[in-house]
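STRUCTURE:
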């Protein structure tokens, strides 16, 4: 027989912390791209996340945003000899809350706060790894999207409207006579009126009921035809994305998460794929986006476009597009025998010519390419203009701070312009 044991609830200082706000302040840490350790050499970097690193990141976020509970501060001031112990227990309680609510997943759960003193030798947070869960990643995408839409001055967006009419659910115009293939979303008032008018025209002046409906009487609502779109987000993760004193990859990851959340919640008919390109190219599940790091890579733009074209060839949508985010000139090329040709100076004639040929293939396949540039080097600008002329796309020369606004506005506006 099972028993349930009840005990007195002991409040914790960690219970007063808003985990949503805390996660928002931890976004840069959870989505970091290696920028903070770029000068130490990639062979010496430790990209694995430990609870000790998380503890330090939480402490910095709380202090920077003045989120430490006042009661905890007073207790630490009144008992300076126990200040470190009180702070460690508070941070451990927060980590336990994050794990309990499914925001992080740890290899080995931390011990209960009440036993922290006795198990100190057994539990070493420096050895315990943690991972960000899909729940936390989805929340970060929601917060990023909310921030971006707020910066645009918009409270909400609908789906991608066009000037075409269809027989859907959202009513926007006068009813129409039902035709084979239409959604049977009947306009009851118009249908009954049509039946009555038909009977009156047939000479039935006195008794109209019971009404007899025939196919010509059926009237259905009209709604706006909403186009569907397949998008490949092409992310440059070459070394230049964290060079020159600026982290450009983390903002790109944030925008990708925001775009994924927007499509999932507002455009269920659309699809989004992520492709990383560096020395080569590879598809990336959205669930792994937060864990991606840049590396000592070159920029193989042609291979990224080639993979994006193959992915979009399987999509049956009204529109297919590539959104490319990069800051570097093409500097690598996959040869026919599989070897990778590299030129660190960029804009090698062979690399550029093959890349532009791939752009032309995308255009012939009906794929639109829009490029978001995070640099404004003269030679790079010239190359991007060539891409736009061939693909009939657009180029946005922006910064990591304004990338999200440009990209979301472009995504929300382009479909209606493209479909007409």
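SEQUENCE:
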């Amino acid at each position: 027989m099972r028993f349930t044991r009840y005990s007195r609830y002991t409040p914790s200082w960690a219970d007063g912390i808003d985990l949503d706000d805390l996660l928002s302040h931890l976004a840069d840490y959870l989505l970091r791209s290696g920028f903070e350790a770029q000068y130490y050499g990639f062979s010496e970097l430790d990209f694995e996340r430990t609870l000790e690193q998380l503890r330090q990141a939480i402490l910095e976020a709380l202090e920077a945003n003045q989120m430490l509970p006042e009661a905890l501060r007073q207790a630490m001031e009144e008992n300076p000899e126990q200040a470190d112990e009180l702070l460690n227990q508070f941070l451990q309680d927060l980590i336990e809350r994050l794990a309990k609510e499914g925001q992080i997943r740890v290899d080995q759960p931390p011990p209960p706060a009440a036993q922290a003193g006795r198990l100190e030798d057994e539990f070493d947070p420096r050895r315990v790894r943690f991972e960000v869960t899909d729940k936390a990643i989805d929340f970060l995408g929601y917060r990023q999207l909310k921030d971006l839409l707020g910066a645009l001055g918009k409270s909400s967006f609908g789906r991608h409207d066009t000037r075409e009419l269809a027989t859907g659910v959202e009513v926007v115009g006068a009813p129409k006579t039902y035709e084979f293939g239409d959604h049977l979303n009947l306009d009851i008032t118009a249908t009954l009126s049509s039946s009555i008018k038909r009977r009156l025209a047939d000479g039935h002046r006195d008794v109209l009921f019971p009404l007899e409906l025939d196919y010509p009487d059926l009237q259905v609502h009209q709604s706006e035809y909403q186009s569907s779109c397949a998008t490949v987000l092409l992310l440059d993760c070459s070394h230049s994305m964290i060079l020159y004193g600026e982290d450009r990859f983390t903002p790109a990851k944030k925008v990708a998460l925001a775009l994924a959340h927007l499509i999932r919640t507002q455009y269920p008919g659309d699809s989004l794929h992520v492709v990383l390109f560096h020395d080569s190219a590879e598809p990336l599940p959205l669930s792994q986006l937060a864990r991606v790091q840049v590396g000592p890579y070159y920029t193989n733009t042609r291979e990224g476009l080639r993979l994006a074209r193959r992915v979009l060839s399987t999509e049956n949508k009204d529109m297919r597009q590539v959104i490319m985010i990069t800051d570097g000139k093409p500097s690598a090329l996959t040869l026919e025998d599989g070897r990778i040709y590299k030129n660190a100076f960029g804009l090698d004639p062979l690399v550029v010519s093959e890349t532009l040929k791939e752009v032309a293939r995308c255009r012939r396949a009906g794929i639109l390419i829009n490029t978001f540039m995070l640099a404004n080097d003269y030679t790079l600008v010239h190359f991007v203009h060539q891409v736009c002329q061939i693909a009939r796309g657009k180029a946005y020369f922006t910064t990591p701070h304004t990338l999200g606004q440009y990209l979301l506005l472009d995504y929300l506006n382009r479909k209606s312009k493209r479909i007409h």
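REMARK: The longest strand covers residues 229-236.
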